[in-house]
Amino acid sequence: MSLEDQLAFDRENIWHPYTSLLDPLPVYPVESASGTRIRLADGRELIDGMSSWWAVIHGYNHPVLNRALLEQTQKAAHVMFGGLTHEPAVELARLLIQLTPAGLDKVFFSDSGSVAVEVALKMALQYQQSRGKASKNRFLSLKRGYHGDTFGAMSVCDPDTGMHRLFSGFLPQNLFAPAPECAFEHECTPECFHEIEELISTHRRKLAALILEPVVQGAGGMRIYSPKYLAGLRRLCTNYDILLIADEIATGFGRTGKMFACEHASISPDILCLGKALTGGYMSQAATLCTSEVAETICRGNPGVFMHGPTFMANPLACSVALASIGLLKDSNWKDRVLKIQEQLRSELAPADDLPDVRRVRTLGAIGVLEMESRVPTAGLQRMFVREGVWIRPFLNLIYIMPPYVIQPGDLSRLTSAMLKAAREIRNLL
Fold first, then answer.
1. How deeply is 3 buried, as exposed, middle or buried, from its count of CB atoms within 10 A (0-12, 13-18, 19+)?
2. Is residue 18 among the annotated active site residues?
3. 99 within a domain of the structure (yes/no)
4. Do 102 and 231 have their domain in common?
5. What is the pLDDT of residues 57-104, one digit of tens each?
6. Is 247 a known active-site residue?
7. Which of 107, 102, 74, 103 is nearest to 89 (CA)?
């Protein structure tokens, strides 16, 4: 099929994420990808600023990750996890328990980040039921939060400004606290906690858990907040007897400068969700970890088992490449790399503070964000970025990058230059 025919078929028949079939956004056919470069079918190369939705932390076509997959295909591409187990799953679970915050020593594998959140919510509900507290069947979340596209996950996303308002009449009615306003480097005053503590205190008898994205709220607005706020919420959850669920699907595995964002606040959640960079972007794989207290309480209750079981949970290919990806991370100087990316982002994006259409600039670890005053013209910006030889995918009122950790300074400068150019010229694209 010719390239023109492929594009025509794609336009007529394939539904891309958050895109209209009647008036679809442009798509760019990819021929291959290697390192930090995406090669288009027409021969153009783009510097990747998105890590393919924040997952490809080591770059594309990495020989170590390729080898891990190929070797596992010679053994077993997949076996069901009901009644069977295998070494890659055992070793990955062992490694995750070692790496994650203290106390998280039970691991449940699933096949995507949204499902990891569904698992966490179901764990919290079964935990409360097994304690004889079935009335604790609602969740508290933060406004501007985002946790996925499946129904349970949608129910704890921001109900007003989030992407799932259309489904509000079908979703469980949960509670939402104001989004944190204290910036990463700022202290939190008692006033920062007034509204959320009042909500918790008032509804403590029906709250199973608080779910949040630690330190960085991702797709809900790329907002970065103070670790002191996270530490304060950990204390509130303990004091009021509700579980704390940390959704680290976007922030885990070094993205914020710590292996996990919870480490900025030196806290451990009761339940932790992982995904995206878990496999270095090679395979869809996720994990939900919890404490022994949560797991054992669930299994002491009726029906005595946890009621979930994805077909492809603990897929051997995914577990093998996840082991290789985490091994690469541990054996590399990833902390120094991410710190240097952070320093360069702060320096090179600083001029955006003076641009009239930029509301604020945010950086943390390998995350750089320009929050604009109004919604950005996605299609126009996308075309401009491709002409500039970079791959940046803006959304809402945000122009942001989360590049692979292996990006070179010169390539990162091309990304930040393109962001500044977009911010300066955005009115011409409206």
1. exposed
2. yes
3. yes
4. yes
5. 999 999 999 999 999 999 999 999 999 999 999 999 999 999 999 999
6. yes
7. 107
Question: What whole-number distance in Å separates Cα of residue 389 and Cα of residue 384?
Answer: 9
d(CA 365, CA 109): 27
Q: Which of 247, 270, 357, 411 is catalytic?
A: 247
Dihedral sign computed on CA atoms, order 91, 93, 94, 96: positive
368 inside domain: yes
Q: Whole-angstrom Cα distance, residue 374 to residue 383?
A: 19
Which residues sit opposite 369 in a β-bridge?
A: 362, 400
Residue 37 has pLDDT above 80, yes or no: yes
Closest by alpha carbon to 233, among 207, 258, 211? 211
Taking the C-alpha atoms of residue 188 and residue 234, their distance in angstroms, rounded to an integer, is 14
Task: Based on the residue annotation, tell me whether 146 is a catalytic residue of this protein.
Answer: yes
Catalytic residue among 270, 276, 357, 400: 276
Into how many domains does the chain fold?
A: 2
Is there a domain that residue 68 lies in?
A: no
What is the spatial distance between Cα 65 and Cα 30, in angstroms, rounded to a whole number? 20
Catalytic residue among 48, 106, 143, 146: 146
pTM check: above 0.90? yes
